[in-house]
């Protein structure tokens, strides 16, 4: 597959790294040679020092044979123009990063399709969705709903209160149990577990279950004492904060602490009475105490500085806040933040890359997420009639090492998958994989 990425910035470089795992034919173009020099020698891709809005350059890059053109520069106008030119010159699919919420509002997709832009992504909205999913369940680090909750994936940090530690999974998660442990992150390593693996204290465990059994999962992992989030304090009033607050449940009471006085005025206009805007420094302990940090259930740090966000969350933790969320855009800091037990880590480029990644896969692959903390992929596959996955029970399939099936949705109902499960064509199947080429998995689901 030939993929051209315009913009060697955060999303573009991260996406190039992600796609290079699958040995794709990748060209990364940018107008800064310095940015390209940092990448070209480390990854299997070609670089071009050029503008994505040049017809001559696009032709030289072989745009006529490109399967996917992705424009993720900081300039949304350049991204859209590049996509329009790429589509007109023969690219099969195009993706543009935008900074305007209006462009992703319902009903906009057809307009952009007519212009030659197959899809638009607004990273701040994607991040806001993840933030709110985490706030709705204070005891969960990461939540992902499939088919409106028919299946639910929960990423949970295990503590000494967990009742299923140090027991083989085959003894605690059998075919009749209402959950599967589909991935474990431990001491920097990712495990796609088998029946003899055990859960240990401080593991980050990923559970697949159905909605009705979420309370059961909460009980066995020892998180029943976590209070629900009603009072939220947000540090940083950027676009991500605006989108998160606008989409938070109405029962949540929100305060935003913003250092820039002008931005405070703008936030009051944008959010009306949805949040109380406070002019100040979110790292100021006295200010936090004055604004009731000790009565706050969640602290969300969304400034543009990863170090500031991490330190602020650590401070909030020490002051008794149980749920903290930090936006960490520097990938190098993600593992450090995780080791410091910050809480939920939000990385817009990883979230955006996962959405774009889906476009390079076949039509029968739907939701795709890259679990950055676990260095694993989770994707929703729909098997074709006669595909290999439908011919035998799961236990007889000899699935690739590093791959497991967590569950499936059939006729709107969620089911967990055991060794005896027979998968049917048309099922929505949730696949978890670590160090497995996604294209190799596609072959199992295609005829």
From TrEMBL:
Recorded GO molecular functions are: potassium ion transmembrane transporter activity
Q: What is this protein called?
A: Trk system potassium uptake protein TrkA
Q: Where are the transmembrane segments?
A: none
Key words, A-Z: Ion transport, NAD, Potassium, Potassium transport, Transport
* Sequence ranges assigned to domain RCK N-terminal in this UniProt record: 1-121, 229-351
Stretches assigned to the RCK C-terminal domain: 141-223, 366-447
State the Pfam families in the record: TrkA_C, TrkA_N
Query: Does the UniProt entry include the keyword Transport?
Result: yes
For this protein, the record's NCBIfam families field holds: PRK09496.2-6 (NF007038), PRK09496.3-2 (NF007039)
One GO cellular component term: plasma membrane
